[in-house]
Amino acid sequence: MNGKVTIRHRESDSDAEADIFDNVTLDDFQESQATWRPVLWGACAIMKLTGQPLPLYKHWDWTTKAPALTRLDVSFFGLKCEGRLQGLMKADTGTLYRCRTESQTGQELVYVDYVETAPWNLQTYMEALGRKRLYSGVGVRLMQAAVELSIDNELKGRVGLHSLPDSEAFYHKIGMTPHERDKNKQCLMWFEFTPENAQSFLENYK
Amino acid sequence: MNGRKAMTLMLTDAEMAALDRMSDSKDMTKAAIIRQALRLYQALDERLSRGDKVYVEDDEKKEKAELVVL
Fold first, then answer.
1. Which residues pair with B55 in a beta bridge?
2. Which residue in A37, A157, A177, A194 is a FRET match for B26, CA 20 to 30 A apart?
């Protein structure tokens, strides 16, 4: 799952080569804290003044997940472009969550516990700061890594996650199946890739 | 994905039968089952090494039993 992928540089409307990697280290977590959080919090301060809803993940701190770096049932992925960290994902293969789609009920899956894109790649925050977003496609590439992790573990592309409200449209768009809100998980909506729609996702976003 | 290394594994008949059954029921290769088992064992062992206790709960009766890991 380490390799080159393309994401879209928004201003030039051209492809940009990026590196996706699964040997994430504490340095990557620290980079997210040092470079992402000031931008996100700056945008949130302006959004608060204008009465816009703030993202639920604004307090995330990836460095707290460092103890899981040595666990075999946890995989971390990062994506870098032009030397800067553009996205991070934590995906669990030892999860107790199981498929909820009727044809897959009870089957094991890869659970995407956390996924985050650098704030300068998100339109909402860049609009608040009066700037243009830098790249698009980071979330797609990370979700592809989750599907590939699932395939690699013979889980046939099955992936599940609880979506934050702001991200639901994204998971709809990439073809994940929405399910009921989970009362045991802050009423977040459960989304799932079946083997079939995981395959379609990989083909549609080459 | 990190590189992989091969190894030979000797199992008893009973262990192999259990592995066969799990491989069939989960539609996964035996290697995938063993890798999954290793991930689970490491996760449990790490918690137990920290002094945590691991329980299984009867969903209907809500009774908890401590999980013993050899």
1. B66
2. A177
